[in-house]
């Protein structure tokens, strides 16, 4: 296994007004929220977990999107409750959150 148990990439790309993009749907704010929660939960996580910022991941119409490796599972989310569920289920317990998969 590598140094990290999980790498989470949040697209925070901002496109021109009127074009669909993850940042217009709150991606940066919710990425920061996820980072804080991961820090707070570090003793509960199965291993080191990194929250990264990514540019456009080329799935703009499904956004906002994130992808978690090594499983390569893609999610969308709309609010902090969705982020909490992804963290608690996927990152802590290793269970894919089917309702948020894209
Ligand atoms: S702007 Fe997020 S996937 Fe393209």
From TrEMBL:
Classification via SUPFAM superfamilies: Thioredoxin-like
Pfam families attached to this UniProt entry: 2Fe-2S_thioredx
InterPro entries: Thioredoxin-like_sf (IPR036249)
Protein name: 2Fe-2S ferredoxin
Provenance organism: Rugosibacter aromaticivorans
